[in-house]
Request: fold
Amino acid sequence: MRLKPFRALRPRPDIAACVASVPYDVVSQAEAVALAEGNRYSFLHVGRSDIDLPADADPHDPRIYAGAKAALDRFIAEGTLLRDREPALFLYRQVMDGRQQTGVVGCVHVDDYERDVIRKHEKTRKDKEDDRTRHVLTLNAHAEPVFLTYRHVAAVERLARTATGEPALYDFTAPDGVRHTVWRVPDAAPWLAAFEAVPLAYVADGHHRSASAWRAGRERRAGNPKHTGAEEYNWFLAVLFPSDQLRILSYNRLVKDLNGLVPAEFRARLASLGRLEAASEPVPWEPGNFGFFYDDRWERLTLDPSGIDRRDPIGSLDVSLLQDRILAPLLGITDPRTDKRIDFVGGIRGTDELERRVRSGEMALAISLFPTTVEQLLAVADAGAIMPPKSTWFEPKLRSGLFVHELD
Reply:
């Protein structure tokens, strides 16, 4: 892994908590409006600048990108964001529910993304790539970091332990209860040396951001006849966390109808796949175990372990088992990326949200899954394979606005 210090744009310490916002892609436009209400410092004015347009604005309206650029320029002009004089690395710690994860903030190389030194496990959608590429090029900056992970390296852990004993640049607790603490690394050299022992990194969260950073880098190269390789646009912003500190939550499913089946018929079909029983606890307790909410009650399906090939990194995933054995053959959902009958709900919202949407009549079926593990994610990426869509939901999310990387 190549890691590079950068001259950060970052908030004044006294307003960092006001600037920091949720990432652009975890809230709807209406939710973003509510979060930024009355807060002119919120970085959502940059990351989700559609909050400053009418609610019915097209998602790709040119005013969205122009508004993001204007907001970033305003933050710089007014001193909301300050530009560091010298390049640096940073440490970023998050604490949620008593668990902590500490990552290194710096820039990684677009060529390492292309060469699969930075490995992926998800497909991306071209329309989302187009959106974020346009956002990067209009801002001339990476406004949000990519969440990367790597297998534990003892030397990096020792450096982090020392650095986090120093006074912090920022230390605040966000409205969702997650504590965010940032330290500036005084000397990057030992960190760069330590990362030479990190052979690979993996995209944990931010496949569209990383793909867009790579595309923006290529476009800038193509448009620069004096390209040397030393330009900032060859690098993109990332936070790298050791994999043993991370937690993945479930990514649950909602389905609009039972594909023409009445509840009794659907129940019989499920029972033919394994052990089906009434459930008082909707959250599965192990792999191969699924919760179903329909007909005003929760039921649990446990698949026969002998019918699951755990040597298959893709086929043994619970999201794959659900797709191959239930969603496609029983419910007729052959492509969950494009089928409008299915929706996805991050585990952070809990099973109450699943029940609410079924009881409201919006959906007919909710499915609660056991979360994919970090080890499964790494195994899939190492195999050069692609996970089914919506397989992982990482928490806590990185706060946007604490670091911006400019392309020049």
Observations:
- The two ends are 22 Å apart (CA to CA).
- The chain has a mean pLDDT of 96.
- The longest helix spans residues 62-77.
